[in-house]
Specification:
Distance between the termini: 20 Å
Number of helices: 10
Radius of gyration: 20 Å
Order of helices and strands: EEEEEEEHEHHHHHHHHH
Shape: globular
Largest sheet: 6 strands, antiparallel
Structural class: alpha+beta
Strand content: 15-25%
Number of strands: 8
Length: about 280
């Protein structure tokens, strides 16, 4: 089996924090990030000037001045291109992100936000950069890690505020958001064994109709379709980045019926698993 490359925080730092400043007219200096990979850490990219495009889990995102790229551990991503880019890439080991912050980043699932005020984050990153430059100080690692927790807190606050504003503009009911967050957390743990909307509605002690109402209000889709989209996303990752057969992938995702899996993938993705793999590699 050929696996997708995994970047590990231990390869970059022995204390879980790594900061890279990028100033480039092209993507040449981004070679390490220019091929598809996953990370075992959180990646925050502050775009100070210029632009770049990233592919994150088969979706393309364009980042301009004042925007923040957020990639969670396990997400497949790569840089497509960059132009006149000035940015800071911050890598943080998962150990330094507490449980509630992880839940917030997972709940909102937002790979891109536009910062209304970048000054605080820029100041903190500049301070972090200076502290990382004098690691000979015995207390430096502890200071860097504490400073990192402040930066993570600020990022999470920005993510939450940006999403809340979006929900308020859409007029989404708070209760709907809570249901969807809980549903997505349950789905992450049970998707390989339970794909029935009634299972998740039962876990949440609500009706399938109400679960559908909440998911549609927040995500703009039905419960069944969201479950299918998540299954197909996991299948796409394996189709592109492993040499597993379609049958093996179907089995790993909990499908005993290989033909049913193929029909489901084709319906959601618009092409068969085999054609998707062939097209993506051409």
């Amino acid at each position: 089996m050929s696996h997708l490359p995994i970047h590990r925080s231990s390869q970059l730092s022995d204390f879980g924090v790594y900061l890279k400043t990028v100033v480039s007219q092209t993507s040449a200096s981004l070679e390490r990030y220019a091929f598809s990979h996953t990370d075992d850490y959180y990646f925050f990219g502050l775009i100070e000037d210029g632009r770049c495009r990233l592919n994150i889990d088969f979706e393309e995102y364009a980042f301009g001045k004042g925007s923040l790229a957020i990639v969670r551990p396990g997400q497949v991503h790569r840089i497509i291109d960059a132009s006149n880019l000035s940015a800071k890439f911050l890598i943080i080991d998962s150990v330094l992100v507490d449980k509630e912050e992880k839940r917030t980043l997972e709940r909102y699932g937002c790979p891109q936000i536009q910062l209304s005020d970048v000054s605080e984050l820029k100041q903190l990153l500049s301070l972090l950069d200076r502290k990382l430059g004098c690691m000979e100080n015995p207390s430096a690692k502890a200071i860097v890690q504490r400073l990192t927790t402040v930066i993570v807190g600020l990022v999470v606050e920005n993510v939450a505020n940006a999403t809340i504003v979006q929900f308020e503009l859409q007029g989404t009911v708070t209760r709907h958001k809570e249901i969807v967050w809980e549903f997505r957390e349950l789905l992450e743990s049970n998707i390989r064994t339970n794909r029935s909307p009634s299972f998740y509605a039962g876990c949440l002690n609500i009706t399938v109709a109400y679960l559908n109402e909440a998911v549609n209000a927040v995500l703009g889709t039905s419960v069944s379709r969201h479950i299918q989209d998540e299954i197909v996303l996991q299948a796409k990752r394996q189709l592109v980045y492993t040499t597993d057969t379609v049958k093996e992938i179907a089995h790993s995702l909990g499908f005993g019926d290989y033909s049913y899996f193929t029909r489901l993938f084709t319906k959601v993705a618009g092409v068969s698993p085999a054609l998707f793999r062939k097209t993506y590699h051409e």
